[in-house]
Amino acid sequence: MAELRNYAAPRSLAEALQVLASGPATVLAGGTDLMPQSRSARVRFAPTLLNIQGVAELRGVRRRDGAVEIGALTTIATLRDDPAVRNGAPVLWQACDHFASDQIRNAATIGGNICNASPAGDTLVPLLVLDASVVLASGGAAGIHERRLPLSEFLTGPGRTARRPEELLVEVRIPVPASGWVDRYVKFGTRPALDISTIALALGGTLFDGRLENARLALGAVAPTAIRAHDAERVLAEGPLDRARIDRVVDAADAAIHPISDVRASDWYRRELVHNLLRRILTDVCPN
Amino acid sequence: MSALIEIEFRLNGISRRVTVPLQMSALEMLRDMMGQHGTKYGCGEGECGACTISVDHRTVNSCLKFAVDCNGRDIQTIEGLAATPFGENLNRAMVEHGAVQCGFCTPGIMMQAQQVLTDNPDASPAQIQRGLEGNLCRCTGYRKILDAIEAVAHPSPAGD
Fold it and tell me: How far is CA B17 from the centre of its chain?
Protein backbone atom coordinates (compact mmCIF):
# COMPACT_ATOMS: atom_id res chain seq x y z
CA MET A 1 0.00 0.00 0.00
CA ALA A 2 1.37 3.38 -1.01
CA GLU A 3 1.94 5.83 1.76
CA LEU A 4 -0.59 8.52 2.58
CA ARG A 5 1.09 11.58 4.04
CA ASN A 6 -1.50 14.35 4.02
CA TYR A 7 -5.18 14.64 4.69
CA ALA A 8 -7.58 17.33 3.53
CA ALA A 9 -11.27 17.54 4.38
CA PRO A 10 -12.45 20.79 2.76
CA ARG A 11 -15.87 22.33 3.35
CA SER A 12 -16.19 24.08 -0.02
CA LEU A 13 -15.64 23.19 -3.66
CA ALA A 14 -13.08 25.99 -4.07
CA GLU A 15 -10.99 24.57 -1.21
CA ALA A 16 -11.23 21.05 -2.64
CA LEU A 17 -10.08 22.24 -6.07
CA GLN A 18 -7.22 24.13 -4.44
CA VAL A 19 -6.00 20.86 -2.92
CA LEU A 20 -6.22 19.09 -6.30
CA ALA A 21 -4.35 21.97 -7.97
CA SER A 22 -1.51 21.75 -5.47
CA GLY A 23 -0.48 18.13 -6.13
CA PRO A 24 -1.56 14.52 -6.62
CA ALA A 25 -4.47 13.51 -4.40
CA THR A 26 -6.70 10.47 -4.06
CA VAL A 27 -10.33 11.54 -3.85
CA LEU A 28 -12.44 9.92 -1.13
CA ALA A 29 -16.23 10.05 -1.55
CA GLY A 30 -18.27 7.08 -0.33
CA GLY A 31 -15.17 4.89 -0.01
CA THR A 32 -16.97 1.68 -0.95
CA ASP A 33 -14.66 1.06 -3.92
CA LEU A 34 -11.59 2.93 -2.66
CA MET A 35 -11.24 0.93 0.56
CA PRO A 36 -11.15 -2.59 -0.98
CA GLN A 37 -9.19 -1.41 -4.03
CA SER A 38 -6.50 0.27 -1.93
CA ARG A 39 -6.22 -2.73 0.40
CA SER A 40 -5.77 -5.12 -2.50
CA ALA A 41 -3.28 -2.69 -4.11
CA ARG A 42 -5.44 -2.38 -7.24
CA VAL A 43 -5.38 1.36 -6.56
CA ARG A 44 -2.32 3.15 -5.20
CA PHE A 45 -2.83 6.13 -2.97
CA ALA A 46 -1.48 9.52 -3.99
CA PRO A 47 0.37 11.28 -1.13
CA THR A 48 -2.79 13.23 -0.19
CA LEU A 49 -6.17 11.80 0.76
CA LEU A 50 -8.82 14.35 -0.22
CA ASN A 51 -12.07 13.64 1.60
CA ILE A 52 -14.81 15.58 -0.23
CA GLN A 53 -17.67 14.39 2.01
CA GLY A 54 -17.79 17.81 3.71
CA VAL A 55 -18.47 19.69 0.45
CA ALA A 56 -22.22 20.04 0.91
CA GLU A 57 -22.72 21.85 -2.42
CA LEU A 58 -21.95 18.58 -4.25
CA ARG A 59 -25.03 16.87 -2.80
CA GLY A 60 -28.58 16.74 -4.09
CA VAL A 61 -30.84 16.40 -7.12
CA ARG A 62 -32.25 19.44 -8.95
CA ARG A 63 -34.49 19.70 -11.97
CA ARG A 64 -33.49 22.72 -14.03
CA ASP A 65 -33.64 23.85 -17.67
CA GLY A 66 -35.03 20.55 -18.93
CA ALA A 67 -32.38 18.53 -17.15
CA VAL A 68 -32.02 16.51 -13.98
CA GLU A 69 -28.80 17.68 -12.32
CA ILE A 70 -27.28 15.32 -9.79
CA GLY A 71 -24.52 16.44 -7.45
CA ALA A 72 -21.55 14.05 -7.54
CA LEU A 73 -21.80 13.24 -3.82
CA THR A 74 -25.45 12.20 -4.01
CA THR A 75 -25.72 8.67 -2.66
CA ILE A 76 -27.33 5.85 -4.58
CA ALA A 77 -29.90 5.59 -1.74
CA THR A 78 -30.84 9.26 -2.16
CA LEU A 79 -31.24 8.76 -5.92
CA ARG A 80 -33.42 5.74 -5.38
CA ASP A 81 -35.69 7.70 -3.06
CA ASP A 82 -35.92 10.79 -5.29
CA PRO A 83 -39.19 11.25 -7.22
CA ALA A 84 -37.40 13.30 -9.95
CA VAL A 85 -35.22 10.26 -10.66
CA ARG A 86 -38.02 7.73 -10.39
CA ASN A 87 -40.30 9.71 -12.74
CA GLY A 88 -37.75 11.43 -14.96
CA ALA A 89 -35.19 8.64 -15.36
CA PRO A 90 -36.78 5.27 -14.55
CA VAL A 91 -33.87 3.27 -16.00
CA LEU A 92 -31.49 5.02 -13.61
CA TRP A 93 -33.91 4.44 -10.75
CA GLN A 94 -34.00 0.70 -11.53
CA ALA A 95 -30.22 0.51 -11.58
CA CYS A 96 -30.07 2.30 -8.21
CA ASP A 97 -32.69 -0.05 -6.80
CA HIS A 98 -30.64 -3.08 -7.87
CA PHE A 99 -27.35 -1.53 -6.72
CA ALA A 100 -25.40 -3.70 -4.23
CA SER A 101 -27.13 -3.58 -0.82
CA ASP A 102 -28.82 -1.05 1.44
CA GLN A 103 -25.59 -0.45 3.40
CA ILE A 104 -23.59 0.23 0.23
CA ARG A 105 -26.33 2.37 -1.35
CA ASN A 106 -26.23 4.53 1.81
CA ALA A 107 -22.52 5.24 1.31
CA ALA A 108 -21.75 4.93 -2.42
CA THR A 109 -22.05 8.08 -4.54
CA ILE A 110 -22.94 8.53 -8.19
CA GLY A 111 -19.73 10.47 -8.79
CA GLY A 112 -17.75 7.61 -7.31
CA ASN A 113 -19.52 5.01 -9.41
CA ILE A 114 -18.73 7.01 -12.56
CA CYS A 115 -15.09 7.82 -11.67
CA ASN A 116 -14.43 4.22 -10.67
CA ALA A 117 -15.18 3.50 -14.35
CA SER A 118 -15.83 -0.20 -13.95
CA PRO A 119 -17.03 -1.80 -17.21
CA ALA A 120 -19.79 -3.24 -15.01
CA GLY A 121 -20.59 -0.02 -13.08
CA ASP A 122 -24.31 -0.14 -12.34
CA THR A 123 -25.24 3.49 -13.04
CA LEU A 124 -23.20 3.76 -16.26
CA VAL A 125 -25.46 1.82 -18.63
CA PRO A 126 -28.62 3.78 -17.76
CA LEU A 127 -26.71 7.08 -17.75
CA LEU A 128 -25.41 6.33 -21.27
CA VAL A 129 -28.94 5.59 -22.50
CA LEU A 130 -30.12 8.86 -20.96
CA ASP A 131 -27.31 10.69 -22.83
CA ALA A 132 -25.88 11.99 -19.55
CA SER A 133 -22.92 14.31 -19.39
CA VAL A 134 -20.53 15.03 -16.55
CA VAL A 135 -19.31 18.39 -15.30
CA LEU A 136 -15.65 18.58 -14.30
CA ALA A 137 -14.43 21.49 -12.21
CA SER A 138 -10.92 22.78 -11.68
CA GLY A 139 -9.32 25.92 -10.28
CA GLY A 140 -9.55 27.17 -6.73
CA ALA A 141 -10.14 30.29 -4.70
CA ALA A 142 -9.22 32.51 -7.66
CA GLY A 143 -12.03 31.07 -9.76
CA ILE A 144 -13.63 27.81 -10.78
CA HIS A 145 -13.44 26.54 -14.35
CA GLU A 146 -15.97 23.97 -15.53
CA ARG A 147 -16.03 21.75 -18.57
CA ARG A 148 -18.74 19.41 -19.66
CA LEU A 149 -18.17 16.07 -21.34
CA PRO A 150 -20.58 13.40 -22.58
CA LEU A 151 -20.29 10.38 -20.29
CA SER A 152 -19.39 8.26 -23.34
CA GLU A 153 -16.26 10.39 -23.82
CA PHE A 154 -15.45 10.51 -20.11
CA LEU A 155 -15.10 6.71 -19.82
CA THR A 156 -11.85 5.74 -21.53
CA GLY A 157 -11.02 2.26 -20.17
CA PRO A 158 -11.40 -0.04 -17.18
CA GLY A 159 -10.78 2.24 -14.18
CA ARG A 160 -9.73 5.04 -16.54
CA THR A 161 -11.46 8.30 -17.32
CA ALA A 162 -10.80 11.62 -19.04
CA ARG A 163 -10.60 13.36 -15.64
CA ARG A 164 -7.42 15.39 -15.35
CA PRO A 165 -5.57 15.18 -12.02
CA GLU A 166 -6.58 18.72 -11.05
CA GLU A 167 -10.24 18.13 -11.86
CA LEU A 168 -13.15 17.00 -9.72
CA LEU A 169 -16.33 15.47 -11.13
CA VAL A 170 -18.98 17.74 -9.60
CA GLU A 171 -22.23 16.99 -11.38
CA VAL A 172 -24.07 14.61 -13.67
CA ARG A 173 -26.61 16.13 -16.06
CA ILE A 174 -29.39 14.13 -17.61
CA PRO A 175 -31.55 15.80 -20.27
CA VAL A 176 -35.19 15.00 -19.48
CA PRO A 177 -36.38 12.70 -22.28
CA ALA A 178 -39.03 13.92 -24.77
CA SER A 179 -42.62 12.88 -24.24
CA GLY A 180 -43.32 9.40 -25.58
CA TRP A 181 -39.93 8.21 -24.37
CA VAL A 182 -39.83 4.57 -23.34
CA ASP A 183 -36.94 2.70 -21.85
CA ARG A 184 -35.94 -0.68 -20.50
CA TYR A 185 -33.09 -1.84 -18.25
CA VAL A 186 -31.89 -5.30 -17.45
CA LYS A 187 -29.00 -6.37 -15.24
CA PHE A 188 -28.10 -10.02 -15.30
CA GLY A 189 -26.40 -11.60 -12.32
CA THR A 190 -26.64 -14.73 -10.27
CA ARG A 191 -28.39 -13.18 -7.27
CA PRO A 192 -30.59 -10.11 -6.81
CA ALA A 193 -28.36 -8.25 -4.35
CA LEU A 194 -24.64 -7.50 -4.09
CA ASP A 195 -23.93 -8.82 -7.54
CA ILE A 196 -21.54 -7.45 -10.11
CA SER A 197 -23.26 -7.46 -13.49
CA THR A 198 -22.53 -10.39 -15.75
CA ILE A 199 -23.97 -8.10 -18.37
CA ALA A 200 -26.27 -5.07 -18.26
CA LEU A 201 -28.37 -3.57 -21.04
CA ALA A 202 -30.46 -0.45 -21.38
CA LEU A 203 -32.57 0.68 -24.29
CA GLY A 204 -34.45 3.94 -24.76
CA GLY A 205 -36.22 5.85 -27.49
CA THR A 206 -39.39 7.55 -28.56
CA LEU A 207 -42.04 5.13 -29.68
CA PHE A 208 -43.87 6.36 -32.79
CA ASP A 209 -45.89 4.29 -35.25
CA GLY A 210 -44.14 1.00 -34.51
CA ARG A 211 -40.68 2.58 -34.68
CA LEU A 212 -38.26 3.37 -31.93
CA GLU A 213 -37.03 6.82 -32.89
CA ASN A 214 -33.93 8.52 -31.48
CA ALA A 215 -33.08 5.10 -30.08
CA ARG A 216 -30.17 4.62 -27.71
CA LEU A 217 -28.73 1.28 -26.68
CA ALA A 218 -26.07 0.88 -23.99
CA LEU A 219 -24.28 -2.24 -22.78
CA GLY A 220 -22.23 -2.97 -19.69
CA ALA A 221 -19.62 -5.60 -18.78
CA VAL A 222 -19.05 -6.57 -22.42
CA ALA A 223 -16.25 -4.14 -23.37
CA PRO A 224 -13.45 -2.19 -21.64
CA THR A 225 -16.01 0.49 -20.72
CA ALA A 226 -19.79 0.60 -20.62
CA ILE A 227 -20.63 1.50 -24.24
CA ARG A 228 -23.28 2.83 -26.59
CA ALA A 229 -23.96 0.57 -29.59
CA HIS A 230 -24.25 3.25 -32.28
CA ASP A 231 -24.56 0.87 -35.26
CA ALA A 232 -27.41 -0.94 -33.58
CA GLU A 233 -29.07 2.42 -32.88
CA ARG A 234 -28.83 3.30 -36.59
CA VAL A 235 -30.53 0.04 -37.52
CA LEU A 236 -33.32 0.87 -35.08
CA ALA A 237 -33.77 4.32 -36.65
CA GLU A 238 -34.21 2.91 -40.17
CA GLY A 239 -37.70 1.52 -39.85
CA PRO A 240 -40.41 -0.34 -37.94
CA LEU A 241 -39.30 -2.68 -35.20
CA ASP A 242 -40.32 -5.96 -36.83
CA ARG A 243 -38.75 -9.37 -36.44
CA ALA A 244 -36.22 -8.86 -39.24
CA ARG A 245 -35.08 -5.55 -37.75
CA ILE A 246 -34.70 -7.08 -34.29
CA ASP A 247 -32.40 -9.71 -35.85
CA ARG A 248 -30.29 -6.97 -37.44
CA VAL A 249 -30.17 -4.93 -34.21
CA VAL A 250 -28.94 -7.99 -32.32
CA ASP A 251 -26.29 -8.64 -35.00
CA ALA A 252 -25.12 -5.02 -34.82
CA ALA A 253 -24.94 -5.16 -31.01
CA ASP A 254 -22.97 -8.39 -31.24
CA ALA A 255 -20.47 -6.68 -33.52
CA ALA A 256 -20.10 -3.80 -31.05
CA ILE A 257 -19.11 -5.86 -28.00
CA HIS A 258 -15.83 -7.44 -26.96
CA PRO A 259 -16.60 -9.50 -23.86
CA ILE A 260 -13.90 -11.16 -21.82
CA SER A 261 -14.06 -14.52 -20.08
CA ASP A 262 -13.71 -14.15 -16.33
CA VAL A 263 -14.96 -15.62 -13.06
CA ARG A 264 -18.49 -14.35 -13.72
CA ALA A 265 -18.98 -15.63 -17.28
CA SER A 266 -17.27 -16.68 -20.49
CA ASP A 267 -17.11 -14.54 -23.64
CA TRP A 268 -19.56 -16.99 -25.29
CA TYR A 269 -22.06 -16.81 -22.42
CA ARG A 270 -21.95 -13.00 -22.30
CA ARG A 271 -22.73 -12.89 -26.03
CA GLU A 272 -25.62 -15.32 -25.55
CA LEU A 273 -26.97 -13.11 -22.76
CA VAL A 274 -26.72 -9.99 -24.93
CA HIS A 275 -28.50 -11.72 -27.86
CA ASN A 276 -31.31 -13.12 -25.78
CA LEU A 277 -31.90 -10.27 -23.35
CA LEU A 278 -31.69 -7.63 -26.11
CA ARG A 279 -34.20 -9.60 -28.17
CA ARG A 280 -36.45 -9.77 -25.13
CA ILE A 281 -36.39 -6.04 -24.35
CA LEU A 282 -36.81 -5.10 -28.04
CA THR A 283 -39.88 -7.32 -28.26
CA ASP A 284 -41.16 -6.00 -24.97
CA VAL A 285 -40.73 -2.33 -25.82
CA CYS A 286 -42.64 -2.59 -29.10
CA PRO A 287 -44.83 -5.69 -29.25
CA ASN A 288 -45.96 -6.21 -32.84
CA MET B 1 4.33 5.48 8.65
CA SER B 2 1.11 6.94 7.50
CA ALA B 3 -0.02 10.25 8.92
CA LEU B 4 -2.12 10.33 12.07
CA ILE B 5 -5.28 12.42 12.25
CA GLU B 6 -7.27 13.34 15.33
CA ILE B 7 -11.01 12.91 14.94
CA GLU B 8 -13.96 13.60 17.20
CA PHE B 9 -17.38 12.03 16.89
CA ARG B 10 -20.34 10.80 18.89
CA LEU B 11 -20.25 7.09 19.68
CA ASN B 12 -23.52 5.76 21.06
CA GLY B 13 -24.41 9.25 22.24
CA ILE B 14 -21.09 10.06 23.91
CA SER B 15 -18.51 12.43 22.46
CA ARG B 16 -15.21 10.64 21.79
CA ARG B 17 -11.82 11.76 20.52
CA VAL B 18 -9.24 9.46 18.97
CA THR B 19 -6.15 9.63 16.76
CA VAL B 20 -6.21 7.32 13.75
CA PRO B 21 -3.92 6.44 10.82
CA LEU B 22 -5.25 7.78 7.50
CA GLN B 23 -5.90 4.42 5.89
CA MET B 24 -7.58 2.83 8.94
CA SER B 25 -11.16 1.61 8.49
CA ALA B 26 -13.95 2.65 10.83
CA LEU B 27 -14.29 -1.04 11.73
CA GLU B 28 -10.65 -1.27 12.88
CA MET B 29 -10.99 1.97 14.81
CA LEU B 30 -14.18 0.85 16.56
CA ARG B 31 -12.91 -2.63 17.44
CA ASP B 32 -9.25 -1.98 18.17
CA MET B 33 -9.32 1.52 19.64
CA MET B 34 -12.83 1.95 21.05
CA GLY B 35 -13.48 -1.59 22.33
CA GLN B 36 -16.66 -2.04 20.29
CA HIS B 37 -16.18 -5.77 19.74
CA GLY B 38 -19.81 -6.38 18.81
CA THR B 39 -19.10 -5.02 15.34
CA LYS B 40 -17.63 -7.96 13.41
CA TYR B 41 -15.07 -8.29 10.65
CA GLY B 42 -16.53 -10.73 8.13
CA CYS B 43 -15.42 -10.27 4.53
CA GLY B 44 -13.76 -6.85 4.52
CA GLU B 45 -15.39 -5.84 1.25
CA GLY B 46 -19.01 -5.03 1.98
CA GLU B 47 -20.46 -8.38 0.94
CA CYS B 48 -21.57 -9.81 4.29
CA GLY B 49 -22.92 -6.99 6.49
CA ALA B 50 -21.38 -8.33 9.73
CA CYS B 51 -19.69 -4.94 10.29
CA THR B 52 -22.89 -2.88 9.83
CA ILE B 53 -23.01 0.29 11.93
CA SER B 54 -25.21 3.36 11.78
CA VAL B 55 -23.61 6.65 10.70
CA ASP B 56 -25.80 9.74 10.96
CA HIS B 57 -28.79 7.38 11.18
CA ARG B 58 -27.97 5.42 8.01
CA THR B 59 -26.47 1.92 8.06
CA VAL B 60 -23.16 1.40 6.31
CA ASN B 61 -20.46 -1.28 6.14
CA SER B 62 -17.86 -0.04 8.63
CA CYS B 63 -15.16 -2.09 6.82
CA LEU B 64 -15.61 0.18 3.77
CA LYS B 65 -15.57 3.44 5.71
CA PHE B 66 -12.39 5.38 6.37
CA ALA B 67 -12.05 6.09 10.11
CA VAL B 68 -11.07 9.72 9.36
CA ASP B 69 -14.47 10.16 7.72
CA CYS B 70 -16.13 9.47 11.09
CA ASN B 71 -15.09 12.96 12.21
CA GLY B 72 -18.11 15.00 13.29
CA ARG B 73 -20.53 12.14 12.77
CA ASP B 74 -23.07 10.44 14.99
CA ILE B 75 -22.21 6.74 15.16
CA GLN B 76 -24.17 3.91 16.70
CA THR B 77 -22.85 0.37 17.13
CA ILE B 78 -24.62 -2.74 18.38
CA GLU B 79 -23.49 -1.84 21.90
CA GLY B 80 -25.49 1.39 21.59
CA LEU B 81 -28.49 -0.27 19.98
CA ALA B 82 -28.60 -3.00 22.63
CA ALA B 83 -29.01 -0.34 25.34
CA THR B 84 -32.15 1.15 23.74
CA PRO B 85 -35.72 -0.09 24.38
CA PHE B 86 -36.01 -1.04 20.69
CA GLY B 87 -32.73 -2.94 20.89
CA GLU B 88 -33.84 -4.84 24.00
CA ASN B 89 -37.11 -5.71 22.30
CA LEU B 90 -35.36 -6.92 19.14
CA ASN B 91 -32.82 -8.84 21.22
CA ARG B 92 -35.59 -10.66 23.06
CA ALA B 93 -37.37 -11.50 19.79
CA MET B 94 -34.13 -12.85 18.26
CA VAL B 95 -33.65 -15.15 21.27
CA GLU B 96 -37.29 -16.26 21.40
CA HIS B 97 -37.35 -17.14 17.71
CA GLY B 98 -34.04 -19.00 17.74
CA ALA B 99 -32.64 -16.48 15.29
CA VAL B 100 -29.11 -16.79 16.67
CA GLN B 101 -26.87 -19.78 16.02
CA CYS B 102 -23.17 -18.96 15.79
CA GLY B 103 -24.09 -15.31 16.36
CA PHE B 104 -21.44 -13.75 14.14
CA CYS B 105 -23.92 -12.06 11.79
CA THR B 106 -26.35 -11.10 14.57
CA PRO B 107 -25.04 -7.60 15.46
CA GLY B 108 -25.03 -6.53 11.80
CA ILE B 109 -28.47 -7.99 11.26
CA MET B 110 -29.86 -6.19 14.31
CA MET B 111 -28.37 -2.88 13.13
CA GLN B 112 -29.92 -3.33 9.71
CA ALA B 113 -33.25 -4.50 11.18
CA GLN B 114 -33.38 -1.25 13.16
CA GLN B 115 -32.82 0.70 9.91
CA VAL B 116 -35.53 -1.20 8.04
CA LEU B 117 -38.12 -0.73 10.80
CA THR B 118 -37.15 2.91 11.40
CA ASP B 119 -37.60 3.70 7.70
CA ASN B 120 -40.86 1.77 7.58
CA PRO B 121 -42.36 0.69 10.93
CA ASP B 122 -45.06 -1.21 9.04
CA ALA B 123 -42.63 -3.11 6.79
CA SER B 124 -44.08 -6.21 5.17
CA PRO B 125 -42.23 -9.55 5.36
CA ALA B 126 -41.06 -9.00 1.76
CA GLN B 127 -39.79 -5.50 2.61
CA ILE B 128 -37.92 -6.80 5.65
CA GLN B 129 -36.32 -9.53 3.54
CA ARG B 130 -35.33 -6.99 0.88
CA GLY B 131 -33.91 -4.68 3.55
CA LEU B 132 -31.64 -7.45 4.83
CA GLU B 133 -30.21 -8.33 1.42
CA GLY B 134 -26.80 -6.97 2.43
CA ASN B 135 -26.48 -9.29 5.45
CA LEU B 136 -25.33 -12.87 5.13
CA CYS B 137 -26.10 -15.59 7.68
CA ARG B 138 -24.52 -19.00 7.09
CA CYS B 139 -26.37 -20.83 9.90
CA THR B 140 -30.04 -20.10 10.25
CA GLY B 141 -31.37 -20.10 6.70
CA TYR B 142 -32.80 -16.64 7.51
CA ARG B 143 -36.35 -17.80 8.29
CA LYS B 144 -36.01 -17.42 12.05
CA ILE B 145 -34.26 -14.07 11.70
CA LEU B 146 -37.08 -12.77 9.50
CA ASP B 147 -39.67 -14.18 11.92
CA ALA B 148 -38.00 -12.35 14.82
CA ILE B 149 -37.94 -9.01 13.00
CA GLU B 150 -41.52 -9.47 11.81
CA ALA B 151 -42.55 -10.16 15.41
CA VAL B 152 -41.07 -6.81 16.44
CA ALA B 153 -42.75 -5.02 13.52
CA HIS B 154 -46.12 -6.66 14.04
CA PRO B 155 -46.45 -7.95 17.62
CA SER B 156 -49.23 -10.48 17.97
CA PRO B 157 -52.28 -9.22 19.93
CA ALA B 158 -51.56 -11.74 22.69
CA GLY B 159 -48.30 -9.93 23.25
CA ASP B 160 -46.07 -12.98 23.07
Answer: 21
